[in-house]
Each structure stands twice: as C-alpha cells, then as structure tokens.
C-alpha cells in the first residue's frame, strides 16, 4: 500500500476533440496577435507555430464570460472571434438527461471538478430519485472532530477459519464488466482500489489478465451468463461474488451494444 491518503493527479484527455457546450468561430481576418491566449482564464486558446487555435474549445464557458475583461469576443482588436452554442448539443440527451448533465458528467470524470457554468446536479427532474438529502447535526454529537476516526472494516467477522479481509475505507467498487466499460477504466479502478486498500469488482464480463497485478484488490463475479468464468479466475480472487438474479437478465447474462463487442470482448465472453 502506498502513501496515505493517495495523491490525486490529473491526466490529459483521452479524446482529440472533446465535445464542448460552445463553439468558437475564428474568422479569416485574425492576425494571430495572441491576445486571446493571454486573456482566456480557461486555457482555450493555444499557439500552434505562429497561429492561434482554440484547441481546448470544450473548456469555453461561453456567455458566462460576457461582460468580463476576459471575454475574448469583445477584447479581440480585429473582431475576429465569435462564440456560439454548439449545435451538436441540441441533439444530445433528453428531458431527463439534459445535454448539460451529460457534458458535465464527462467533464467531472476528465478533470475531477464540477463545471460552474453547467447544471451538473439534477437536470430537469427537480431531483427525483437522484437527490440525496443528508442532515448532519454536529451540535448534538458528543465527540471531538479532532479525534482520529477509523474507517477500516473487517469483511469476514464470523471467525469461521476463512482468511480475514480488512479494507481501509467503508466502500468498494461495484461490478462494471469488461465490454460495458473499457479495459482502461477497469485498470484505473483497480489501481485506485489498491491505493485505497479496498476492492473493485469485475462484473459479469470476465476477468481480464491485465488485472492480475492487482488481484489482491479484485472481486470476481460469477453471474448467470458465466462470461469468462474459469477455475483459474476464481482461484486468483480473494473474494468471489455470485449474482444469481437480475430482472433484466433472465439466465442469459447482460447483452452489449454491437459497437462495444470488440474482438477482445468477444473472446472473453467466449462468443467466438
């Protein structure tokens, strides 16, 4: 186990052209003076050689910047810039999952921070089942916040002779199967759980061999489809999770969208 708490590091985007809420139109009369590069607090613009390009267009906060000294459209000496709402956004999402909610969820996954200029909490539903309410009445509690509070949990407390398993935090990662998510996502979850000294679960899509270095922190799932379930995958896991009922999967396992069934996923699920 590494240092505690684990260090959080940002990563570069995995996408060449991430989708943003706004589009920046750069007219031909731009003289590439670079003023927008200096002004923009979001780092939207960047020099490529001697040309200025809005390479990080997805970071643009659009009309929220209007009226400030950073607003590139108003400050441009050549009036060569225009900001519009990305027309692609109009086709993204629905009434419940609005385009703002989808974009902001992606943005938080990429950066770790919620975007202030988008509705990232409840969409148009007013909350519904997705709103959680917590009431913390610290004034009625007889303990000091300066005291160290242990968050460790013993998972096997029956003293039945099986190995004792203790995790350092009161949570573990639920099942997300190979195919429904990428191997990159599974590895990221496994690495994070190793740092936090907890577990991630493979879900029902099999146990990719790339997870073996993190096997002490991986739960393997055995579900109705038996995708990729083998004796060796069960033996290498410290915990085996059995999923014997799920309404949408009557004995056949979960079905993937065709575009997600790559050759590796098909081999793992023994469908080729």
UniProtKB/TrEMBL annotation:
Alphabetical GO biological process terms: glutamate biosynthetic process
InterPro entries linked to this entry: 4Fe4S_Fe-S-bd, 4Fe4S_Fe_S_CS, Aldolase_TIM, Glu_synthdom
Domain of life from the UniProt record: Bacteria
Enzyme Commission numbers on file: 1.4.1.13
Keyword Metal-binding appears in the UniProt entry: yes
GO molecular function, one term: metal ion binding
Gene3D superfamilies the UniProt entry points to: 3.30.70.20, Aldolase class I
Domain 4Fe-4S ferredoxin-type per the UniProt entry, residue ranges: 21-50
Catalytic reactions on record: 2 L-glutamate + NADP(+) = L-glutamine + 2-oxoglutarate + NADPH + H(+)
Signal peptide: none
Keyword Iron in annotation: yes
Alphabetic keyword roster: Iron, Iron-sulfur, Metal-binding
Protein family: Belongs to the glutamate synthase family.
Protein's name in the database: glutamate synthase (NADPH)
Species whose genome carries this gene: Desulfofervidus auxilii
